[in-house]
Amino acid sequence: MSPKSALKAKSEPGQSETVSRPIALLAWYDRHRRRLPWRAAPGETSDPYRVWLSEIMLQQTTVKAVGPYFEKFVARWPEVTALGNASQDDVLRMWAGLGYYSRARNLHACAVAVTRQHGGVFPDTEEGLRALPGIGPYTAAAIAAIAFDRHTMPVDGNIERVVSRLFAVEEELPQAKPLIQQLAATLLANSRAGDSAQALMDLGASICTPKKPACSLCPLNEDCKARTLGTQETFPRKAPKKGGALRRGAAFVVTRGDELLVRSRPEKGLLGGMTEVPGSNWLAGQEDATARQQAPDLNGLSRWQRKVGVVNHVFTHFPLELVVYTAKAQPRTRAPAGMRWVPIATLADEALPNVMRKVIAHALNLPSGPSS
Question: For 228, which of 185, 208, 302, 318 is 20 to 30 Å away at the CA?
Fold first, then answer.
């Protein structure tokens, strides 16, 4: 038997465990389920639009951060057809501050596809959902289970942690994902697939937390192998992260009275389609003098003033450090090609990513970035 096969055999549950665990899990969920704005109340049917919207927003983002954005979206676009008929610019503006902006572009593209190709009705199978823009295997499984009660188990970070501890999965992530997926499926009840998935999500969020899990309150604690070993906090096993190299650049904040010079980033790539102040390339090891040479060219501009300090921001794959320069333009100065003047008072309506909010706040001595 290979080491991987032995590991799998060691982790697999027995027949009695396979039957009892889903029942215990649902009993716990019925008593302790979280109240979330996108979650149907007990006895109610889940709205596929709200399930889909929340799942896209929750990717790499916390429930706490998503809540206000979800409420804003459903207030403005209460159904998928309303969102599908909106402009991408409006969606990006509403999304600004939530991060990972490719999600917003895919969100809009998906809403358009559901509206135009499916008559405003989401497909009710994993296969049909995966054919939509921005919906991968996990999201398709989550929508299928929660919105349509398909017998499938989506595995997010919370479920990954619960399952890896319950079965003491020694293999490191991401290689362990297929095994964890297989083991998670054993926790599905014969009915109420959506509740089974949400129960595991809630268990990971409230009991089986990354640090100091409340094992005594867990409905599965008697069967948990990691708890028996006293090694709960060491799971899931993870390969060391490779941090990206620091990138450096410059941001140029130009004002014309009460207006600010901005431009839109290219549609594809990092922060695609978002609003920014002009800036240099973001490169590892870039010297300040090199970045400074990439300042926008405007007639009659005052001398550039470098602000004291730098703006730091961390993206998924690299940290960023920006030097900020400010300058003032004459009253009738035209914006260079591809740029535009916008009133500072209306910056909240612009699709500004968090890094640009930091830059503008730093340049204009604001207490914080423009609110979203």
Answer: 185
Nearest to residue 278, comparing CAs of 332, 231, 341?
A: 341
- Distance (Å, rounded) from C-alpha 223 to C-alpha 235? 16
Q: For the stretch 260-269, what's the b/e string if a residue is b when 16 or more beta carbons lie within 10 angstroms of its beta carbon?
A: bbbbbbeeee
Residue among 44, 55, 71, 276 flagged as catalytic: 55
Amino acid at 39: R
Residue 136 to residue 126: CA distance in whole angstroms: 9
3-state secondary structure 254-281: EEECCEEEEEECCCCCCCCCCEECCECC
pTM as predicted: 0.75
| 170 is an active site residue | no
pLDDT in tens, 240-268: 877 789 999 999 999 999 999 999 999 88
Q: Tokens standing for 48?
A: 């596929």
DSSP secondary structure string for all residues of 109-138: HHHHHHHHHSTT---SSHHHHHTSTT--HH
